[in-house]
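Late entry, written up from scratch paper. The run itself happened at the end of the previous shift, but nothing got recorded in the book at the time, so transcribing now.
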Amino acid sequence: MTQALYRLRVRFWPKYFVGDDVAVIRKAREALQLDPEHLLAIEHLLRAYANINDAAALTSLLDSLSPALRARAEIKAHIARNYALQGDETQAREIYNDLVASLENLTPLAVFDTALLAISRGEIDDSVVVMERLEKPILGCNSGARFCPGKIKLSAKILGTRPC
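Output as recorded:
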């Protein structure tokens, strides 16, 4: 990762968490100019477009993604969320069902995005059930996703426990 890309990444993360979607969009676009397949920037951009209900920008971004990126579970959840926002319930439901069927194999981020998809579809109870999956062991971790997000081993010193 280049130093410029790292600085952009560090700068748009806090903006995402404070809900500044306009700033997230600006910073994510800058990151994508440096690396067109920067997954974190793409995901933040997809969420920001969905948050501000900019279906045209969301569709445009999704259409511009490579087939390899479109095949990722996290991106599939955003594609389905876009269908839900546009009122295409059939397509959204089909992708949602595929994601739920493979929850055991999804990364914690993909599980979270699947839960957001359920919320977009108005299925709050289903979203809670999907989110509860984050408390269970995922991807071979014995201690649950909160201690092993995305298979990244966290410091036992910070956690006060043994990482997975």
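The two ends are 26 Å apart (CA to CA).
(Scratch paper discarded after transcription.)
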